[in-house]
Amino acid sequence: MEDRLDFSGRTQLYFQLYDILYRDIKTGKYKPGELLPTESELIDKYKISRVTVRKAMDMLTNEGLIIKRRGYGTYVQNPKLEQTLNQVLHFSNEMEKRGYRSSTTMLANEAVLANKTIAEALRINEGDKLIHVNRLRCANDVPHCLESAYLIHHACPAVLGQDFSKDSLRLFLNERCGIVWKHAHQKIFAIVANAQLAGYLDIKKGDPLIYIERVSFDQHNRPGEYLQAYYRGDSYYLSADLDVQTIKD
Question: Which of 45, 158, 228, 240 could form a disulfide with 85 if both were Cys (CB 3.0 to 4.6 A apart)?
Answer without folding.
Answer: 240
